[in-house]
Amino acid sequence: MGLQVKIRIVGRKNGGEKWLDQSYATYESRLKPTNLDVTTHWHKTDEELVKAATSDENKNHKVILLDPLGKMCTSEVFSDNMYNWLEIGGSRLTFCIGGAEGLPKELRESTNKNDMLSLSSLTFTHQFARILLMEQIYRASEIRRGSGYHK
After folding, report:
1. pLDDT tens, 11-26?
2. What gap in Å lies between CA 57 and CA 41, rounded to an integer?
């Protein structure tokens, strides 16, 4: 069993454009040879997301919220952070992405600011944020490996 990363997201899996699925699949495929197992869990409501994230926290998994109020960092720092978070969480890490209205207030208020990450000061759809996160997870693994992918 390797390192397990969950992406919890509010929204519909279907209904997006094909290129979104193809982009995600590209990084999913690239991660197959690594010891990182990344899965996406779709939630229909904010309440479902809160319940699932709380359950992960109760199992001592590290939970990180993607939120505009979070801290931005370089890819190198993200790589270091991601592997530290995996160590803290017993090889289990959960990223939460809110829906069209952002993350539920209940999650944001109960989370330490250090456990919030911002991908950019720009606004993205939740489906696109998932692809950006997936690329950064792959990039983090390549930085850790010392490959030429990250220059």
Report:
1. 887 666 889 989 999 9
2. 15
